[in-house]
Design a protein that fits this description.
The protein has about 575 residues and is mainly alpha-helical. The chain has 22 helices and 4 strands. The strands form 2 sheets. It has a two-stranded antiparallel ribbon with strand order 1-2. A two-stranded antiparallel ribbon has the order 3-4.
Length: about 575
């Protein structure tokens, strides 16, 4: 019976088990060689295989990428099976992990993003199995070029180890039902992201971005862990169920509990890119490679919101009445979306534009979460808002990761850091330009794309919370009588309209500006096909059966979180 239970528990975390096995394989397999160990006092040599001259197959620099793609594909296949039959794949794993529809949906989001990043790595971090070392007669440029190729070959295993480690931390975090486990997994993913941001340390931007991101992230994490310790002092229990039960039994808000949750908001605010905790994010996106920036804008943001929803909605939401964090979160949301859009308007770096756009999108979702804590939301409204947030996190995978994958095709020579790098893209590669324009329209929330539907759902949820709160004969008197939560929806609409300007500017330079000589590089057919497919999905998830299917998954995940 015990082995049956153990087997069942392992099945519930099958994607994480696959990631762990793949991680071990990427560490060991590229180091396999003909090393032998001599038994002392004898001439007998026993093969140990680790070390020595590596075998021809295992020293192929393309091997880590192939292994990462195989590992992530297998893990995603297991996660998709769980998504299609959640009842069979739901249950507790020990006392700190739980597999349910909420964690299963997020696991699929994380693995999809990381799989796309690994696929793009073949272009952004190329490997050459036929690379030659510099020769004595080489000139300076040839020597530098050969050294760069050898350097990229050497970094293949490092990059994909970090990618799988990040995925393992994210997937386990989504299943965490204990704050200690949640923070350990959060930091496992975060530490990997810090290194990935500074992975291009040979460039000035990469080293600076990694340092800034690490320092700000470490401070935010330290504040969050201190807040968690305050919650433990208050409750003596860090399980989500125990904290929720203790919170609902409070007759008056305990200052120690409020301080603990407030400090944890600092850590989660950094993860989701909320102002004023966003200061290192534009530099991180700009200094990192485009594929890593895409992971930060999608998977890392989803990880932060998963943790935020666990703490605010599951633990710190009173049974009735306004949550103590409502006003603060509403102000942060307004500041975040406005600052993000205004900063994006004045930026000439496409990566920084998308970084500030990501900040603005964090503000939209924070506004929706704030509405839950207003005290006006009933069970249906809460479910509607959480469903909208989860749906938005899902569709971000296609229309937010897509632009970064397009930028990865022009990354050579620093073109992804200049708006001029997009000039004439429609002439050089019409499919990429059309896809980029679709992504921009979806990010702006233009119908019928998925970005419009996700924003509409969040606005509808906020309006439903404040419905009937205002009643007067004139517009002015109505505006002063309506509940303040209504203006969060108005802020989303106004900021979305503001964002159209810088998204359309990216479209204008692609189609109407002449291309610079020597800009861009050849895009592989596989990567181009992936980008075009993501553009098609950006439309499919906005209208028709695909959007209804994804919305149903988000609704089921919302019910699992709130139950």
């Amino acid at each position: 019976m015990s082995s049956e239970v153990d087997g069942l528990e392992i099945g519930l975390i099958l994607p994480e088990v696959i990631l762990t096995l793949g991680l071990a394989a990427i560490i060991l397999v590229p180091n396999l060689g003909d090393a032998k160990f001599r038994i002392p006092l004898t001439s007998v040599r026993v093969p140990v295989f680790i070390g020595g001259t590596r075998f021809e197959k295992t020293r192929d620099p393309r091997l880590p990428n192939w292994m990462a793609l195989a590992t992530l594909s297998a893990a995603l296949a297991a996660a998709v099976l769980a998504l299609l039959d959640p009842a069979e794949w739901s249950g507790n794993v020990g006392s700190a992990l739980e597999s349910d529809q909420f964690s299963i949906l997020l696991t699929n989001v994380f693995l999809c993003v990381l799989l796309l990043s690994a696929a793009a790595a073949s272009l952004s971090l190329p490997s050459d199995p036929y690379a030659k070392p510099p020769a004595d007669g080489d000139d300076e440029d040839t020597e530098a070029s050969k050294t760069s190729v050898l350097y990229d070959n050497r970094r293949q295993a490092d990059f994909h180890i970090l990618l799988l480690t990040m995925g393992l931390g994210m997937c386990l975090m989504a299943k965490s039902t204990h704050l200690f486990m949640l923070f350990v997994c959060l930091e496992l993913a975060s530490l990997s992201s810090y290194v990935l941001v500074g992975f291009n340390k040979h460039t000035g931007e990469g080293g600076e971005a990694g340092t800034k991101y690490f320092i700000v992230g470490s401070v935010a994490s330290a504040v969050g862990i201190y807040g968690m310790s305050l919650l433990y002092l208050w409750s003596g229990d860090l399980s989500v169920s125990g904290l929720s039960e203790r919170w609902s039994s409070m007759e008056a808000l305990d200052p120690l509990a409020a301080a603990g949750v407030g400090m944890m908001l600092v850590a989660f605010g950094f993860k989701v890119g909320a102002a004023p905790f966003h200061l290192a994010i534009p530099d991180a996106y700009s200094g990192a490679s485009s594929m890593v920036a895409g992971v930060l804008a999608t998977a890392s943001k989803a990880m932060g919101f998963a943790a935020l929803l666990r703490v605010l909605v599951t633990v710190a939401l009173p049974v009735s009445g306004e949550a103590f964090w409502y006003a603060a979160l509403a102000m942060i949301a307004l500041f975040t979306m406005t600052w993000g859009n205004l900063a994006a308007l004045s930026s000439e770096n496409p990566k920084r534009v998308l970084a500030y756009s990501s900040v603005a999108h964090a503000g939209y979702m924070l506004a929706a979460v704030a509405a839950i804590g207003s005290g006006l939301a009933d069970a249906d409204s809460k479910s509607m808002i959480v469903t909208a947030v989860l749906f938005h996190l899902c569709v971000l995978v296609v229309f937010k990761m897509g632009p970064f994958m397009v930028l990865s095709t022009i990354e050579a020579g620093g073109d992804s850091h200049r708006m001029a790098g997009l000039h004439g893209l429609a002439t050089r590669d019409p499919l990429l330009a059309a896809s980029m324009f679709v992504f921009a329209l979806s990010l702006a929330g233009v119908p019928p794309f998925s970005g419009f539907l996700s924003k509409l759902l969040m606005i509808n949820g906020i309006v439903s919370v404040s419905a009937g709160s205002g009643g007067a004969s004139t517009v002015l008197s109505w505006a002063t009588s309506v509940d303040p939560v209504f203006w969060l929806a108005v802020a989303i609409v106004l900021n979305s309209a503001l964002s159209v300007f810088y998204y359309l500017r990216m479209g204008m330079v692609m189609f109407f500006e002449p291309s610079e000589e020597g800009s861009g590089r050849t895009c592989t057919p596989l990567l181009r096909g992936i980008i075009v497919a993501m553009a098609i999905l950006s439309l499919a998830f906005g209208v028709g059966p695909p959007s209804e299917w994804l919305l149903g998954l988000a609704e089921s995940a919302s019910e699992a979180l709130l139950s």
